[in-house]
Write a structure and sequence with these properties.
By secondary structure, the chain is of the alpha/beta class.
Length: 399
């Protein structure tokens, strides 16, 4: 099997698994206990918190462990946030149309879209326009911020999970800071490929997910600049996660996330170069394989360009049904996706791609290929050859 769906999830890194094993076997103590194995668990959690903080260029006490990116994003758009904004007289929030569902759905559930807002309830959500390259329209955001003084929170993802498009979050953070507006950025897809310096970004909240960076599923973290500006989703443990997340700590997975962040920080440059080169290698081999048949011009890149730093490549192939292509590739042992893993079983076109100007059919004809430092050039070249062969077959050019 050749696995090229690393934007959906990644395999656990061997060093991460090694770090976790002691806490899956003998070190099973509850971190809240006073006896030795409990204290050892608490010590392991603190070390992991410091490792995760290093990824954010933050302090350990600004890191709260969660079950993943979705929970962290939902913390930002909780009922508690709604109450907090109301106290500040700021009832409007701004998000982009390309946000992950965990932001998009949470925001529109708690703060109705502006066109559907209740007259008696003036909480609502503005949507930033999307440019053709998959990034947000910063001018439109600036216009919203300049014309609506009731905006209290902005959320824009660092890197899009479907297209790999990179948003200018440092600039966005600066715009929000100048106006005293809270800023959240979903960094789930950025981690490992792009530097996440919360001081340069100027964000108040930032989220990551373990299983996107070679740690296990079910663990993540949220950076909170000022804990007085955060509210819990899970109550019941005033001493757990600074009172911001009740529940016995998942020690082994927390240790795994810490180790994954440590690996990223110790070899960041090499990792981002590796995945970027693998992405380019795949694309160039696909184009080369299709060129002799004259169908290379039917391949279009959505979002981030091939030469951009990052792990995600979104391709649209004219008149090639993405679902059929995925099934053919799966039969030949190659794993890619038709977009976000959250939408992999839906026939609706991608909200992200249609906001970029693609038609419904064009969005449905698009596929996502994403790479990791655990992939090799040999398997990427093999996958590109298989991909090209499948496209030729679907185009009726070979059997």
């Amino acid at each position: 099997m050749i696995y090229l769906d690393n934007s959906a999830t990644t395999p656990i890194h061997p060093e991460v698994l090694k770090a976790m094993m002691p806490y899956l076997k003998g070190g099973y103590g509850n971190a809240g206990a006073v006896y030795r194995i409990g204290r050892e668990s608490a010590k392991a959690i603190q070390k992991a918190r410091e490792q995760v903080a290093q990824l954010f260029n933050a302090s350990a006490d600004q890191i709260v462990f969660t079950s993943g990116g979705s929970e962290g994003n939902n913390m930002v758009f909780s009922y508690g946030m709604r109450c907090m904004l109301e106290e500040r007289g700021k009832k409007h929030v701004v998000i982009s149309q390309i946000e992950h569902d965990s932001v998009y759905e949470a925001a529109t559930h708690m703060f109705k879209p502006s066109g559907k807002a209740d007259i008696k309830d003036d909480f609502y959500t503005h949507f930033i326009h999307t440019k053709q390259d998959g990034t947000i329209d910063v001018k439109h955001l600036e216009e919203l911020l300049n014309t609506d003084e009731s905006i209290g929170l902005v959320s824009v993802m660092y890197v899009n999970n479907e297209t790999g498009a990179v948003n200018p979050i440092n600039h966005i953070g600066e715009m929000c800071k100048e106006r005293g507006i809270l800023f959240h950025t979903d960094c789930v897809q950025a981690a490992g490929c792009h530097a996440i310096d919360t001081n340069l970004i100027g964000c108040d909240y930032a989220t990551i997910s373990g299983h996107k960076i070679y740690a296990p599923k079910g663990i993540g973290a949220i950076y909170v600049r000022d804990k007085s500006m955060a509210r819990s989703l899970i109550y019941g443990g005033s001493n757990q996660e600074f009172g911001l997340r009740g529940g016995t700590e998942n020690v082994a997975s927390i240790v795994g996330l810490g180790k994954a962040c440590d690996i990223i920080c110790s070899d960041f440059g090499a990792q981002r170069v590796t995945v970027s080169l693998l992405k380019r290698l795949f694309y160039e081999n696909v184009i080369s394989g299709l060129k002799e048949y004259g169908i290379d011009e039917r391949v279009h890149v959505n979002g981030a360009s091939v030469g951009d730093v990052g792990k995600t490549l979104n391709l649209r192939i004219e008149d090639i049904d993405s679902e059929t292509l995925l099934l053919m590739l799966d039969a030949k042992g190659v794993c890619i996706s038709a977009g976000s893993a959250c939408h992999s079983h839906k026939s609706d076109p991608s909200r992200v791609l249609t906001s970029m100007g693609l038609s419904d059919d064009e969005a449905r004809d698009s596929v996502r290929i994403s790479f990791s430092s655990m992939n090799t050039p040999v398997e990427v070249e093999e996958a590109a050859e298989i991909f090209s062969a499948c496209v030729k077959t679907l185009a009726g050019l070979q059997r």
